[in-house]
Give the backbone structure.
Amino acid sequence: MTQKYTNARSNEYATSSDFCRIYLEKMNSLYLLSLLLTADRQRAEQCFVSGFEDCVSNPYVFNEWAHLWARRSIILHAIRSLCPRPNDKDESNEAMLSPLIAKAPLEVRAYPNFARIVGLNSFERFIFVMSILEKYSVHECSLLLGCLRRDVIDARIAAIQHLATVVAAETEPERDVIAFAEVNYARR
C-alpha cells in the first residue's frame, strides 16, 4: 500500500526531465518573456537560465502547473535582476516617440509591437507584461513587485496610454498622406 501511494504521489510532481521538456518545447516563448521583461539580451539570457535552474532543482511543483511555474520563475528572476520600482524616473517614456526599433534588442526589432513594449520604462513594462500578457492579477503583481495595488493600476494605465501614443504617432504620417490624397482627388 505504501509503495502504491508513493508512486502515485511521485507522478503528481514535475521532474527535472519534465522541466527540460518544457524549456525545449517552449524555448522561444520563455525567452521572449525574459527579453520583454528585461529589455536586454544578456539579462534575458541570465533570467532564462536561472529560471531553468530553479525549475529543475524544485521537486515540489505539480505536473499540471509546471509550465506556469517555468514562466513564473523567469518573471521572478527578472524582478530580482532589475528591481523595477513605481517611481523609476531615470527612464523616460518621451524617448518612445522616437523610433523604438533602433533601440530594441535584435530579437524584437522585426516585431514593432514587441519593440514598443521594450520601450516602456521598466516598471510599466513589467506591469504590462505581467498583467496584460501573462494575466496576473493586480494583487499578484503588487505582491511580486513589492508595491501598492494603486501603483500597479496606475502603471498599467500609463503603459497602455504610452503604447497608444506611440502607435498614434507612428500612424499619423499615413493619415496625412491619405488626407492629402483625398484632398487632391476631390479637387479633380
